[in-house]
Structures are given as structure tokens and as C-alpha cells.
Amino acid sequence: MSDLITIQNFCDRNTSEPMICSFETETISTPTSPILHSMARIWLINEGEAAVLINNKEYCLKKGCCVGILPWQITEVIEVKKPITFYLVVYYYDNVNEIIKTFYNPGSIEMSILHRITAHPMIELHDRAYQQMQILFMQLEDEVHEMYTADEVEENEEDRALRNLFITNKLVEIMLVLMRYEKKTKKKWETIDASEIFLYLYSHLNERITLEQLSHKFYMSESAIGTYIKKTTGLSFFDLINEMRIGRTMNYLLYTDLTLEELAEILGFVDGAHISKVFKARTGMKASEYRKTYQRIGDRCRISDRKVYYEIVAYIYRHYAEDLKGSDLSRKFGVTMKNLNRILLYQVEMTFHGYLNYIRVNKASELLLTTDKTILDIALEVGYNTEKTLSRNFIMIRHITPGKFRTNMRFQGIENI
């Protein structure tokens, strides 16, 4: 992809305060240019027929189709047979994701919204399900419209709080319908498309991401990744990271009382001064002013976050090679095992064991490609007691044995990246 892609703005409307979501009815009559979306969105197709690319994969849109687009995914309508008319909801993915996993998932079931929508971004609703979804969208439209015009009429804090709660519930209902009606096919192991780099970056912003790490993850050279990002977005690798982190920073300023220094550690900035500089350049407003102006929305929604959440994730990432046990981690951070898994499900889309194995398998993959160590030695180095345990978890995550992974990747010349 050589043409520059437009990056969608964080907010679609100019309002007196940040919105939980926006709602529009749109029509597309001709093919569009590619757009890289910084915010999540949902389309409900009501009329027409068209073909759309979502991260370079083609889907046919027609009446009854519902499309979930995650932050930092690319869409492009490539063919319009009949003009499509659809409801468009743009929302803050992180907030809805946290609400579902914290308040609507009391059993801490392992549930990855990001992974499921990535695997099946479009679903076809049968007549009854489509009608139910239409009702949800229309109810959401009415309430969002009232939110837009709230400044023009007298409204007390309780009324505004109830409206926020209603809108949040409707967003959750729509997300749950998307997940319930997804196709039941399993996603096979395949070569990762370069366009997935953006979503990977977005979901790992709390880490100190480097081009070297991306090179190993996507089996591309550092220069190739840098060039792809520049040609696609017009931004350098570091400018793109800052653009993504500012979106996250807005949410944390609204919904937490974390200091700028704490946010710097969580979101991967150098320090608090770095956040201030980048935030002011991007938004034209100081971070402290933004928080002071819009903090009351966080009070209405009662959304909270704590530094310990990120400390848990960081601790597992740094100590993966040790004999880590969930019970030990629970005692260390003063949380129950149930709450530990709930925290990790929100933060990294996995339970404790799932996240630990994910890190170990990723580290083992790097060692398989960059060293000549035996599989047993690699297993021991990443924290497993036996080669068999590594192989079992490797197959579960990579859908291939460690030996075949090493042979196939080296046969393609990947070890020289």
C-alpha cells in the first residue's frame, strides 16, 4: 500500500465536553479512500450492497450486516453495487471494554472482545436479530441526540448521570450482540498482514515498543516496518506511537486520578514532561487543563483504574522465566485469584495462565529463530520444566510445533531479519 492513508480524528463532533459515543446515519455511494481509525466504530447496514476492506480482508456488506471496527484498523470501501445507508456509532473502545469485563462479567470468564472482533469483524444478522439491533441503535440515537442538545436546556447532575448510564448500557448490549452472533469458525494460523501492526501497537502501548520488537513479531525488517508506517500514515514510527498514546491519555485523564508521572510509566512515555509536551502539541491544551475541564464525566460514569493493575502486568512480563504461580502473585499484590484474572482479562485480554504462556511462547519463538539452542534448553530458559510443556503451549498459541516453526521460518529466511 503506497498511498497515504487518512487518520480519523479522535472526536467526530465539536461539543462542550467529550462524548461517550457519537451517532450518525451515513450513505456511501462511491468507493472511498482508505481510513485509519483512531477510535472504534460499529456500522449497521440498512440498505444497499458494497464491498469493504478491513485490514486488507474483503467483506460483502448488505442489509442486516453489522461491522465492528477496532481502534487503529484500516477500512476502505472498494466497490459499491448499490449505495449503502448505515447507522454509524463511534465510541471509546477502552471504556466499553473495561465496563463489560468489570461489571458485566462477575464470573471473570476468559473473554477477549478484541480477539473476537478481529477474527470476525462482520456478522450477518437474521431478520429478528437485525430488528432487535435496529431497536438498540435507534434507542442509542435518541439518547445521544439528547446529550448533544443538553446544554440548551436545564438539566441536573442526576439526569446527566442517568443518560450516561443508559448510553453505556446500550453500547454494551450492541457489543454483546456482535459477540453472540459471530461466526463459529476458528481462525487458522496464518501469516500476519502488515496492516495488523497498527492494532498490535495500540494493544501494547503500556510497553516500551521498539522497531526491533516489531521486527521479530511480524517477521519484517525494521526499515520495512518504518517505511510501511510512513507510507501508510505519513507519520514516523515514534510520531504514530505518540498519536496512539494521546488517545489513551485522554481517557486516563478523564477516568482516573493517576499523576502524569504514573501515566508516563503506564503508557510508555519517557516521563510526565514528555506527556505534557506531546499532549499540548496534539490537542492545543495542557493535560492538567483538560483533566480539570472534563473530569466530571469520569465522576458520572464511576469508571476507576488503579496503578496496581499495571504493576501486575509489568511484573508478569519481567518475571516470566521464574516459577510464577497465580497464588503467589495474588498474595504479593493483595488481590484474590478471581480478581487477579479479572484485572488481566481487562488489561491484556487473557487470564494469568494464558498471559504467562503467551509471553513464554513469544520469547521461545525469538530464541528458536535467533539461536541454535535445543528446544529443551529454550523451554528451561523461558520458564518451563520440560520440552513437552513448551510444545503443548506452543501448539496452542502458534498452532505449530516449535521444531516446525523453526524449520519453516528459517526456510523462508526469516532468521536474518
Automatic annotation (TrEMBL):
Domain of life: Bacteria
Gene3D superfamilies (alphabetical): Homeodomain-like
UniProt xrefs under Pfam families: HTH_18
Matches recorded under SUPFAM superfamilies: Homeodomain-like (SSF46689)
Keyword match Protein transport: no
Residue ranges constituting the HTH araC/xylS-type domain according to the UniProt record: 195-293, 310-408
Segments passing through the bilayer: none
Alphabetical keyword list: DNA-binding, Transcription, Transcription regulation
Matching PANTHER family: ARAC-FAMILY TRANSCRIPTIONAL REGULATOR (PTHR43280), HTH-TYPE TRANSCRIPTIONAL REGULATOR EXSA (PTHR43280:SF2)
UniProt protein name: AraC family transcriptional regulator
UniProt source species: Dorea ammoniilytica
Source species taxonomy: Bacteria, Bacillati, Bacillota, Clostridia, Lachnospirales
